[in-house]
Amino acid sequence: xxxxxxxxxxxxxxxxxxxxxxxxxxxxxxxxxxxxxxxxxxxxxxxxxxxxxxxxxxxxxxxxxxxxxxxxxxxxxxxxxxxxxxxxxxxxxxxxxxxxxxxxxxxxxxxxxxxxxxxxxxxxxxxxxxxxxxxxxxxxxxxxxxxxxxxxxxxxxxxxxxxxxxxxxxxxxxxxxxxxxxxxxxxxxxxxxxxxxxxxxxxxxxxxxxxxxxxxxxxxx
Length: 221
Ligand SMILES: Nc1ncnc2c1ncn2[C@@H]1O[C@H](COP(=O)(O)OP(=O)(O)OP(=O)(O)O)[C@@H](O)[C@H]1O
Ligand SMILES: [Mg+2]
Hints:
alpha/beta; P-loop_NTPase; Chromosome partitioning protein ParA; CobQ/CobB/MinD/ParA_Nub-bd_dom
C-alpha cells in the first residue's frame, strides 16, 4: 500500500503520523519504506535518531526523494516493499502532487484550529486537480492535536465531513505530549516508556479506521 501524508498547512502533524505509521507497520513485520519528500527533512532526522536509539538496527528503510519524478521513483520501488509511506512538506509542492498521483491512500490530518481548517478548500482544489490522474485514490481526513475541551473540535469535524473529496474518520488524535516525547527519542508513540495509553489507543484506532476504509474500497491492506 502506498500512503501519502499530505496537506497544505505546516505543522498539522504529517511527519508525526508518517513516522508513527512506519513504526507501527514495521512492528507488524511489514517491510516499510519511509520516503521523505520534504526539504525540511524531519522524517530523515527522525530516522537518524531512531538509528542511534536502536544501535544501528533499523526496522524500516528511509530515503529522501523530492521533485516531479517522485511518482516514477515510487512506481519503481512499489514492488520491493509491503508499504511505502510518503511524508510531504506543508505546502502545495510538486513533490506532493507527484506523490498523490501514485498513492493508494492520502491522509490529511487537520489541527482543529481555524487557520488550519480554512485550508480545507485548498486541499479539495488540490484533489480536484490530482484525481483525474489517480481516480482510485482514497483520501482520508481526521483531526490531530484535538483539544478535549470546547466546541472547536466538533465545528472542525463538521467542516471536514462536508468535503465530498474526503472520507472523514472520527478517530482524532488528542494533543498529547507523548508524540513529541517519542519523536525526540526516535521512537513511535507505541514504543514510548512509560506508555501514554491514550495516545497509543488513539493512534491504533486511527490506523484501524484507515484500514477499514481501504477494505471498504476493496483495496488489499
Ligand atoms: N497529536 C499530537 N499531540 C501533540 N503534539 C503533536 C501531535 N501531532 C504533532 N504534534 C507536534 O506538532 C509539531 C508539528 O508536527 P509535525 O512536525 O509532525 O507536523 P508536520 O505537518 O509534519 O509539519 P511540517 O508541515 O512543518 O512538515 C511537532 O512538534 C509535533 O511533535
Ligand atoms: Mg513534516
